Amino acid sequence: MEGKREMGSYKFCLIFTRKFRMTESGPVADVRELFEKYADGEAHMSPEQLQKLMAEEGGGGGETSLEEAERIVDEVLRRRHHIAKFTRRNLTLDDFNYYLFSTDLNPPIGDQVHQNMDAPLSHYFIYTGHNSYLTGNQLSSNCSELPIADALRRGVRVVELDLWPRGTDDVCVKHGRTLTKEVKLGKCLDSIKANAFVTSKYPVIITLEDHLTPKLQFKVAKMITQTFGDMLYYHDSESCQEFPSPEELKEKILISTKPPKEYLEANDAKEKDSGEKGKDSDEDVWGKEPEDLISTQSDLEKVTSSVNDLSQDEEERGSCESDTSCQLQAPEYKRLIAIHAGKPKGGLRMALKVDPNKIRRLSLSEQLLEKAVASYGADVIRFTRKNFLRIYPKGTRFNSSNYKPQIGWMSGAQMIAFNMQGYGRALWLMEGMFRANGGCGYVKKPDFLMDAGSNGQGFYPKDNSCPKKTLKVKVLMGDGWLLDFKKTHFDSYSPPDFFVRVGIAGAPVDEVMEKTKIEYDTWTPIWNKEFIFPLAVPELALLRVEVHEHDINEKDDFGGQTCLPVSEIRQGIHAVPLFNRKGVKYSSTRLLMRFEFV
């Protein structure tokens, strides 16, 4: 960022050469003004002055000690000056600019667990996967232990396994009634054990869809007990008033499924969702989804005729549907169940009834959730204060796409089950939500969802709702694409033409999308564009950022994305790392942005 200049050449029509000035921009005006303000007009900024800046501008996220400021100064000098000359221990303007534009030294959110982790488990949103063993689409992809390991290492805390007989004496994991290729249960359990607590020490919940005979249930109980041993948590959720906290359950594995006898009755108790086909209503103010990375709907039409209706979660269908031996009990298996699942008879209203002496988990499809919220919104929120609500994708999402998670969060649902291989904007939102609280996989629900005195009517603000908080976002500049992409990736004949889309996802009244102007023919665009977002529900708001490269003749190219929980954003100027479509962070590509709450 020292203002170096060089010429870049692009071939045009295979004969002519077009030359463009490749400029590595120096500090933008906001950075210069900040440096001058705290360096008191001098050419250098001392650690004491940096400490003051971090304290007053919010740049340290609470880390405002002199020792922290000295650590940053020393690290910047070590990186930027190959021959360490520590005759001075201060920052020049270019050093200061380097610090602000470093994603590891100056990130927009913190990386430490900071929320109260001593509340009951049901008081938290929990990072949840759906059909965690699938490598691709829901109908014909392979089943494997590898997606489970990947999800756990990404911070997911709830994984789902579908258990099916493999012959008469073995158990496999697969998506039933489809052409998916099975994987052995033992491999999945070993993968969970090896990866459960690599990223986060907080508990992992395994939700089981059980289609087994009592004999195989006994075998599964033995496999689970032998694999996890002391890691297993046993809990009688049928006779308790409060569930333990994430802190109390650190490094514990919890099993959640229906008690064996309830599977026989499941078909009588179930409420089949419509599973209607047709266009998904997933478009929002951001327009159409970027290019799909899983199988498209047309690709899957070849196999849909070979499988049964998948409009309902297998867990809601019941297991061993033609096996009368299911009337028997498997006490060893039942003892493993820490969170009992099931849907009582009597319809949706009865399913949402709260038993003061029991804790249970209820599963609803994304469509049934919408109906429940429309008809019994207050009951849904009341239910989730103590019990667990799991939402799963509708059965017609054959290509492993996902749905908007906001309605579930606004209703207090703890487990919004997502296809972790279903890359797209919905999954980006999920990843953004769980960047909060140090990425530990548990995010404390807002107080307004836990207020026992609420009537449930105040959780969907109207368009005229007064904002609780206003977020100002200024997109200053971007850099790093030339290091992460080939020179001709965006345009064969010239440098890229970048623009940024910025907006809010959350309560319907807060949802909005804006964009900067296009900066033409540059790898280091400077926008200096400010946006103002009034927020009625800042607790559940996510800041969405996407970079695109303008193409006048074709679809705009994708240049990176991120999603940040508004409640975690630090004020001041920060380096915002960008991620690819699969949620993998680019090595160098980032934005310099300024945040202010008013």
TrEMBL record:
Residues of the C2 domain: 450-580
GO cellular component, one term: plasma membrane
Catalytic activity: a 1,2-diacyl-sn-glycero-3-phospho-(1D-myo-inositol-4,5-bisphosphate) + H2O = 1D-myo-inositol 1,4,5-trisphosphate + a 1,2-diacyl-sn-glycerol + H(+)
Record's bilayer topology term: Peripheral membrane protein
EC number: 3.1.4.11
PROSITE patterns: C2 (PS50004), PIPLC_X_DOMAIN (PS50007), PIPLC_Y_DOMAIN (PS50008)
Start and end residues of each PI-PLC Y-box domain: 363-449
Protein name: Phosphoinositide phospholipase C
Organism this protein belongs to: Arabidopsis lyrata subsp. lyrata (Lyre-leaved rock-cress)
